[in-house]
Amino acid sequence: MTETDDDRADAWFHALADRTRRDILRRVLAGEHSVSALARSYDMSFAAVQKHVAVLERAGLLTKRRQGREALASGDVEAVRSVGAMLTDLEALWRGRISRMDELFATPQQAPQPPGTDHPEEE
Amino acid sequence: MPVTDVRHDPDTLTLTITADFAAPVDRVWQVYADPRQLERVWGPPTHPATFVDHDLVPGGRMNYYMTSPEGEKYYAYWDVVTVEEPTSFTFRDGFALDETFARNTDLPESTNTYELAPTDTGTRATYVATYASAEALQQVLDMGVVEGSSLAINQIDELLAS
Questions:
Q1: Which of A13, A32, B1, B81 has the fewest CB atoms nearer than 10 Å to its CB?
Q2: Which SS3 state, helix, strand or coil, does residue B46 take?
């Protein structure tokens, strides 16, 4: 991962770490919503909802456009897909573990111990 | 390569990996039952794992840390839920605050199910990990993100050795 990727990941996970923002994102991924319509869906001030929308926008998960006096927000499907890419990174960790197990099985064991035997080197 | 199948489910933040090992079920089980073997495979070569406590029984605790090349330690634990030796166990994998291994409640745990089944050639292992939130996933990645490059090197080594 490059520095920029890391910065983007930080921004995504910060944005997605909040329940209201995840809910806003679900709505705007399904279709464009005006910020004022979104604000009516939550038991919080218009300013608070606007702030959540701004966090999602800075993280690149949501885009906004103006239509007259309305600000319309829609979700960025590509960016949301990047969460899937995170799972791919995790897959790499797992593939490493499995590959190390495979190597372990390929090397002859020194003094195999039956299960339940105490290991003298253990603290 | 022993990995035979990988499935991602971004909606439920679940990762399912299937691997076929050329070793009998009892031998694969031993890796999890023996902390010295487990730490040889759990952490990436750059972030080796050290298991301080190891109790693979229902309700048991596994406490471990991983050490970064800079010497920074990441403390984590498993809370073992069920154990069906030698074919399956389930546990919650979480992050600890420090060397006391007290749970870091700011971070959700992941739920894990490991299953081992005999095959004609050895063992089929199925690993299912479910992350409660994107945040939890990020922490795991912070610990394991270096793995990609070290894994690539391992694969080259294996290729040259074969």
A1: B1
A2: coil
Select, from the ranges A47-51, B126-130, B156-160, the one with the highest average predicted confidence (pLDDT). Answer: A47-51
The domain made up of B3-161 has a fold known as Alpha-D-Glucose-1,6-Bisphosphate; Chain A, domain 4 (3.30.530)
Burial of B155: CB neighbours in 10 Å, binned 0-12, 13-18, 19+: middle
Q: In what order do the strands lie in the sheet with B3-9?
A: B3-9, B14-21, B123-131, B110-118, B88-95, B73-84, B61-67, B49-53
Regarding predicted confidence, which is higher, A61 or A6? A61
Beta-bridged to residue B78, according to DSSP, are B62, B93
- Chain A, 73-92: which have a CB under 8 Å from a chain B CB? 81, 83-84, 86-92
Q: Do A84 and B8 touch (CB under 8 A)?
A: yes
Express each pLDDT in B20-57 by its tens digit. 888 999 999 999 999 999 998 888 787 889 999 999 99
Q: Thinking of the domain A3-78, which architecture would CATH place it in?
A: Orthogonal Bundle (1.10)
Report the candidate in A123, A113, A96, A95 with the shortest Cα–Cα distance to residue B37. A113
| Planar angle of CA A29, A33, A38, nearest 5 degrees | 105
Q: Which of B47, B54, B92 is nearest to A97 (CA)?
A: B47
Q: Which residues in B lie closer than 8 A to residue A103 (C-beta atoms)?
A: 154, 158
Beta strand extents in chain A (DSSP E only)? 33-34, 62-67, 70-75
Q: What does the block give as tokens for A35?
A: 């910020």
Q: Where are the domains of chain B?
A: 3-161
Could you count the other beta carbons within 10 Å of the beta carbon of residue B60?
Answer: 16
